What does this fold into?
Amino acid sequence: MCGIVGYIGNGEASDIIINSLKKLEYRGYDSAGIALIDGDNGSTAIYKKEGEISNLESILPPITSRIGIGHTRWATHGKPTTKNAHPHSSGNISLVHNGIIENYMELKEELVSEGYEFSSDTDTEVLAHLVKKHYTGDLYTALRTALGYVHGSYALAVLSKDHPDELIAARKDSPLIIGLGDNENFIASDIPAILEYTKRVIYLDNFELVSVKQDSIQVFDLEGNHKKKEEHIIEWSPEAAEKAGYSHFMLKEIHEQTNSIHETMLGRLHELEGDVIFDELGLSRAQISQIQRIEIIACGTSYNAGLLGKYLFEKLAGIHTDVDTASEFRYSSPVVTPGTLVMAITQSGETADTLAAVHEATYYECKTLAITNVVGSTISRDASSTIYTRAGPEIGVAATKSFTSQLVVLYLLAILFARVRYTMDADKAQQLQSELRKIPGHVRHILENERSIHKCALKFVKTNDYFFIGRNINYPIALEGALKLKEISYIHAEGYAAGELKHGPLALITKNVPVVAIAPQGHTYDKILSNIKEVKARDASVIAIADMDDTEISKYVDAVLTIPKTDEMLSPILSSIVVQLLAYYTALEKKCSIDKPRNLAKSVTVE
Amino acid sequence: MKAVILAAGEGLRCQPLTLTRSKVMLPVANKPILEHIINALASCGIKEIIMVVGYKKERIMDYFLDGIDLGVNITYIEQKGQLGTAHAVKQVSSLVDCEFIVLNGDNIIESSTISDILNGRSGDVTLLTVTREYAEGYGIVTSTDKRVSKIEEKPKEDISHMVNTGIYIFNPDVFNEIDFTTVSQTGEYAITDTIQKMIDSGKTVNMVHSESTWIDAVHSWDLLRANAYLLERHEHFMNKGTIEDGAVVRGNVSIGSNTIIRSGSYIIGPAIIGKNCGIGPNTVILPSTTIGDNCTVEPSVQIKNSIIMRDVRIGSFSYISNSIIGAHNSIGSNFITETGDNISIEINGIIHTASKLGTVIGDGNIIKHRVLTEPGKMIATGCTISSGVIIRKSIPENSLVI
It folds into this structure.
């Protein structure tokens, strides 16, 4: 989701625009740019830079300016490079855009044949040239005419040095608002961007254009008729809006998983054929067949996802797989050969340890594959290919939706590898895919029954220790459950492979210590049942995460948190929702700072 | 002007669909009822929306977020305990300080419905009425000229065809009046009681009569008619999906992105198919059908005049007619819905009549192969129906039917 801002007034335009752009950070972005009309010499100054807004700030010289536009770009396809960052220009005209121009290819061909030169790969540049082409001295008319040729969605802000007293904006199917100040006016994608400066806004409707001057606003429809708009006063705090009624980003993001999991699968499943297609994988079928070993490198939650990946690649595709924490991989003596596929998993794509490890791996001439949530992040430039998890921006420090999306990507990769290497027949692949498509609905079902998890969390709020146990594919979820709880509720928690208990940890199990057993039906079900009896014999309180139709387990445990029945292989996705909610409600009852836990950062960019 | 949408209610008469979501989130023409309302408000320039939520509020919040994608700004207020419409309105007293419009979140309206009341507003309270031939079950308004003399909830005998839509324009004085509203016989604080008291104390309560769209889906099966009605009037049909060679798409049909209509399929509009769906091969979809996102409709299925919500799989050789299938259902092959006319249906002990209906199925059921539902027999939610079963009576929540 791109962000747009525009400013005209007596303030320092560059400061105001940069500040407003920062308020749109929650929409996610990978590059930023700004265009200003220099107050001293009347020229247009354009600065853009990939990465953080601070990168843009570092190259931005002090410019005295009273008018400008700014943009944060969240690339969904196409590369997030400085070249593709907005604003885009044609002649004296510069503009920023949020949306998709659907017919940009044909428009581009036409413009190229007329001699316009393109310097980026974006659809937006077409708009800049179109406005230039129809410019005859009036910026508003030029944009209005240009938009007549365009199919798609847009929120736009246009600037020209020939009109240093006017910004033009337009909207169709992408959000855009106008902020009304005192002898200054604003354009923005969302209200938080301008709330620091004014609380008076106008919401633009589809097919509306607006001429924004320092002391006046005029709104028109596409036919050029003047439209009267009502002014609205905003009375809420910007942060509340971003959380859409939820008290924390984490809970909002847990709820978003009914959609984010779909986004991850979108267009990648081909159920009738039983195939998975990753356009961006960058490995041929021959290369997939020749993989000798997979080395997964990750940190934190991503490591837990990677560990599940190990079980999947080994079980489904028969490829020997190792998982290493990135900080260890770097300083061990990695045995990596050209037949190794190095897979790096990082939500932000900026995790310093993971980046360094991938860098290290490239020296061994092996293929590197990054799985990340942030388009154009550093890792996507370092790795030989990148798969995006498409979970959308994640604000809560404790990873939730990005984790389940990582899992889904790993399932899809495992199915793909298994099909190519003939270790899975089409029927099994079809069955897994059809079950995968049902997962979002199952997640919805778990969320419907949130209250039972809340109640369970309440019971153990005062405990000092928590244990999570699981076997096989459920073991990574035991680790993840413990990690979530540690991160946000500050309760000491450990995840163990259930079979490991008697080799040490059992000594810690005492009366009433809560033990969460992840025990959906499957080939290790009987084994985990005996582990449950083992800890029950030490008077622990056992919370089981089990299938909905499991009538047996409640005889042995103190509480059962159910998940809908799915394929045995896929149940970890559902169990992880339960442990996320358990951690959330525990932290909530303990009144912890859930979205910003102490000592932790969302993206760990230091070693 | 700000709008207050009352969206906290449960919608008992729309069970089993409302077991997992409130009535305002029931989809018609592939959008929740509430979204139609927000669009109508937005196109009349009302962008500040206060949503009073309660029952299953997360569903609403997950879907609409802060509203910016619809071009509005939504503030959520939770009504704890369902104590009636007056109590719901009272929740927003700290958020409004001038004239505001109040609407129910579960009535389908269009923008002219809103502009009618905006243009005709006068007096201390304005309320919007429509005429209904059969007015039983509604609040009935009697008036002299446009000045309302009485609002009567569900009168036993016919007194007027003038039905209260529950769309009002109030000024903040109403909050004081609410404080003095007494509990009704049904144990609720009703806003109509507040208004009646204002009339009795000499305040001017005027009505505006409207002939614009106002659809009150009382029962789940009323959604089918509402769906057909909106599809007929739907304007922006767009194909963003893939139609394979050999598939026929006629009339007004919207197809979402990443959806594939496979060869041999025959689709006749008006119909909407969501994004990320797989349809066919050889599947027939006939008019007034809406299919939600992420659905799989297997080969040789026929669907007509039905609503299929999101994340549903329908097995090959199934026949679905005049039915509503909730979200996240998994249906095996050869599933048949029998359709009947003038069916009596019991909901929570009261008999209701459906003029024409196949079945209504709640969310998250597993229906195996060769299952047949008799007319009007429903399946709640979380049920598993074994192969070969004929559903001869409605199935309650979390049942296993062998």
Summary: Chain A is about 35% helix and 25% strand.
